[in-house]
Design a protein that fits this description.
Length: 135
């Protein structure tokens, strides 16, 4: 099972998104494959070890940079969701990126995990998973 943590600034937008995604997990009968929870980033960074992948809403870029600068123990794959994907919130696309981010982190444990050519978060225009965008 892949345990996903979705973080935003205060938990408001992430709670709605996580609830919608959890509903899709249940509707598809995938409770044994995925779980998703939400927390504000301040709490989320304290419980990283409980999850397989952490998705951050795009507006948390500065918070993540601060955590890296403070040398917090960020020992899990952390992924800044591209702005358009955040807006569209397509379940299947986010799950694909989560699976790929976990694999990439296993090969190169760097935080945040970035797909090739996506160093500048604000320049990412895709609204689908990287694997579907780069076909």
């Amino acid at each position: 099972m892949i345990k996903i943590l979705l973080c935003c600034g205060g938990g408001f937008s992430s709670s709605a998104i996580a609830t919608r995604m959890q509903k899709e997990i249940v509707e598809r009968g995938w409770e044994d494959r995925y779980s998703i929870e939400f927390l504000p980033i301040g709490l989320g960074l304290k419980v990283l070890n409980d999850y397989d992948v952490i998705i951050l809403c795009p507006h948390l870029k500065v918070e993540l940079e601060r955590a890296i600068k403070e040398k917090l123990p960020l020992n899990k794959p952390i992924y800044l969701l591209p702005p358009k994907m955040y807006g569209l919130m397509k379940f299947d696309e986010i799950i694909c990126d989560c699976e790929d981010v976990i694999k990439m982190y296993q090969e190169n444990p760097t935080v945040p995990v970035k797909f090739p050519g996506e160093d500048n978060l604000l320049r990412i225009t895709r609204g689908v998973a990287y694997r579907h965008y780069k076909k």
